[in-house]
Amino acid sequence: MDMNSPETELRTLMLASQDGDAAAHRVLLERLSRHLRAYYKGKLARIGRGPTEAEDLVQEAVLAIHIQRHTYDPNEPFTPWVHAIARYKLIDFLRRNRASVADVPIDEANEVTANDDHLNAESSFDLRRLLKLLPKKMQCAIVAVKLDGLSVAEAARRCRTSESGVKVNIHRGLKALAALIAQRAQT
């Protein structure tokens, strides 16, 4: 295996991250963010969706990778594990937005690391603790749509705000969560 391949580099960072190396974890999440951003932008452009939605998916996937990193088996290749998470997040997005999965080819496992484009929680309990650091409206929107699987319209009713308010709160909230995770990875 090529020692400079994305698989080798990312797997090495992941193993160091699993061993508690906060700097390696931070670098891993930064590199994965770039790869995932390119992946999601390409997929969503095919169905007329924009970079804001791609960025939301990047933040969701990075958060999921951060929270689920303890489930990665070091005896297995790393990028297929990342692709499975990225693919799940994409399918979930398409389902929430009533888009057809058939419109977006989602099976190319190597695409997650094919292009480049310009965290210590271990469980959903830690995610809930991080969420409590966000303003209430952001918490409500993220929990309703991202965790409970409600549509944006349903979340707007639950959170007593407009649909655009839900979208803005999710976008800003995911960015804030990513920043909190990165900040905690540095300490």
TrEMBL record:
GO MF assignments: DNA binding; sigma factor activity
Signal peptide: none
Domain RNA polymerase sigma factor 70 region 4 type: 126-177
Pfam families reported for this sequence: Sigma70_r2, Sigma70_r4_2
SUPFAM superfamilies xref list: Sigma2 domain of RNA polymerase sigma factors, Sigma3 and sigma4 domains of RNA polymerase sigma factors
UniProt domain RNA polymerase sigma-70 region: residue ranges: 39-98
Similarity comment: Belongs to the sigma-70 factor family. ECF subfamily.
Protein name (Swiss-Prot/TrEMBL): Sigma-70 family RNA polymerase sigma factor
